[in-house]
Hints:
The chain is 41% helix and 10% strand. The chain is mainly alpha-helical. A two-stranded parallel sheet has the order 1-4. It has a two-stranded antiparallel ribbon with strand order 2-3. The protein has a two-stranded antiparallel sheet with strand order 5-6. A hairpin with a 2-residue loop joins strand 2 (42-45) and strand 3.
Amino acid sequence: MKRSYTTSTASARMAQTLIMQGLDAADESVQALLLELITTKELRISNIKYNIPRPYFLVIVVLAQNYNRLSISPHLMDRFFISYNFEEDMFSHSNVPGTLHRQFSSRRYALMKHEEIRSLAENATKVHANIDITRYVRDIVVGIRTHPRVKGGLTARCSQDLLLVTKSLASLFKRDFITPELVTIAAEKVFSHRLHILANNVNDDQMEKEDMDANIPSNIVAEVLRVIYVPV
């Protein structure tokens, strides 16, 4: 399909990566704009149409460990592919090897080329998920949804994203099939940021109060993984 609108102005170009901080403090209109960008893959501002760049467009959101989960739209959170917890000192200069640090400080350095990313994406489409793996993923999703402390957060998109992440991991490990180990590696990173967790030991008038502890969703995913039958 041809694009119905084109522009030659440099201002209409979007960066390959969008990095945001403080999304939990952002206005609802900002979150709605970001959701529109992710879902429609385009953005219109002042009659100018911005199309996301190819071959990929990354949206990275940096949040504090104790961020307010209730302040971010669940529809927006469901669109974030994976999450990763890290400590701030992981990115301090003292933890970066001297040679690598000099390379980064002297010029921009591409860790992966577009050709490598394209090749991995193509290989991921060729990865096979047999019926036992799809049942395993289904059982994990059901186990998390029915956990007594899970209020909600898992949608049909979660299962699709989990399979896509595991296929991508299989491609990285040069495999053409998915193993249960890859599913367990990906599950916590795909599910934990989407979960809404009920608080423990609340009064009757606080039954819907949510727990903001960032570690609990990961612990619940790990708990479910321990009790779900693993295909062999």
